[in-house]
Task: structure prediction
Amino acid sequence: MLKHKTKYLKHSSTFSEANAIPPGKWISQSEAARIRGVSPQAISDLVQKGRFRILKIGGKTFLDRREVQNYKTKRTGRPRK
Result:
């Protein structure tokens, strides 16, 4: 019976994206805001515009740390002549 229980526990453990996240690779929006030196709302706006790849787990949004660090702001407004 004990052997069967062990097999059941191994079988019942599901693979989720949360288990596959390397530590430090995915960061929260507030951490991204601290890294970029902007408000969390500014990061949220960029996420809504699709500027970052995101991972949603349990209603929380995580961003790829490397993308946040390497992000270059796009110039806005009319182009110069």
